[in-house]
Write a structure and sequence with these properties.
Rossmann fold; seven-stranded mixed β-sheet; 300 residues; Alpha-Beta Plaits
Length: 300
């Protein structure tokens, strides 16, 4: 799909929510690569987000609906958010969304730059050029940032490693793993459109020869990997817990995110039941990332 076509349709999502829900909802919408504005109205907030009318928009809308109902559980004093959707003709959104994706320094090592821009000012040793298109993953969301930083830690302590990225989206985690020195990477997603953009981003960063992008379901994988990343949502992580554990090689690392802090205890418990050990928990705002280790073969 060409984002610049003049006949392109867009989807406008309006969410009316209490102010305390604002940060969580807007962060999630931007992780889905919307363009959006937020208008305050006393104690309620009207969030307007725009998405390209891609073939899989139904999946995106269902994800948003599930999320706003889920996040309400963690803010019990708030009123439940209400969502409305309408289809609109192209009114420049295809270019305007880019205003919300700007250069960002993610860590002392990494700067992310939009593919259509040149680096602005001092940058870090490593620079990724990203064009997320309609896929997940610009590097702005806390869950993505924590995963990127966790990969830096892996690269520092694990001189030779390979990686499986589950739900790769824009490919940002797989691409950074390649830049950090991973020798073999499989990046999977259920969305063909996401994989198309992920492949483009891999080419932009000259690592397309290291990464294999695939629609192959996680359940069908038989190999294990020294590093596995899954920046998903709570329900998907819990549903896939057994397979995520078994595709993590003995002595390997499993990085989980897309989780709220209040969900961490239960997720850790479930993965410990699968034989993994807690290594570290990272928090940014209300979001969390969990780093787990699988013991050596024959060990505990």
């Amino acid at each position: 799909m060409d984002r610049n076509t003049k006949s392109e349709h867009w989807i406008e999502v309006r969410i009316e929510a209490d102010l305390e829900l604002h940060e969580a909802i807007v962060s999630y919408l931007f992780e889905l690569n919307c363009t959006g504005t937020a208008l305050s109205d006393e104690n309620r907030l009207l969030i307007k987000a725009y998405f390209p009318g891609v073939k899989d928009s139904k999946h995106t809308l269902e994800s948003i609906s599930r999320y706003i109902h889920q996040v309400h559980r963690f803010f019990p004093r708030s009123r439940e958010a209400r969502m409305q959707v309408k289809h609109i003709e192209n009114q420049g959104w295809a270019e305007n969304w880019r205003k919300f994706f700007s250069q960002q320094r993610v860590s002392s090592q990494l700067t992310i730059v939009p593919a259509w821009e040149k680096p602005n000012g001092p940058t870090t040793e490593k620079v990724l050029f990203m064009d997320p298109g309609p896929a997940f993953g610009t590097g702005k969301h806390p869950t993505t940032i924590m995963c990127l930083q966790a990969l830096e830690d892996v690269a520092q302590h694990q001189p030779k490693w390979d990686m499986l990225d589950v739900g790769t989206g824009s490919g940002i985690l797989a691409i950074y793993a390649a830049v950090l020195g991973a020798t073999r990477i499989l990046a999977i997603d259920i969305d063909p459109e996401a994989l198309r953009w992920a492949k483009r981003n891999a080419r932009l960063n000259h690592v397309n020869h290291i990464i294999v992008f695939s629609l192959k379901p996680l359940e069908n994988l038989v190999e294990s990997y020294s590093v596995v990343t899954a920046n998903l949502v709570y329900e998907d992580i819990m549903q896939l817990k057994e397979k995520l554990s078994t595709v993590t090689a003995f002595g390997g690392t499993l990085i989980l995110s897309g989780l709220l802090k209040d969900q961490v205890k239960e997720v850790v418990h479930e993965f410990q039941s699968e034989g993994l050990n807690l290594n570290k928990i990272e928090n940014m705002g209300e979001w969390a990332a969990i780093i787990l280790k699988r013991g050596e073969a024959g060990g505990h």
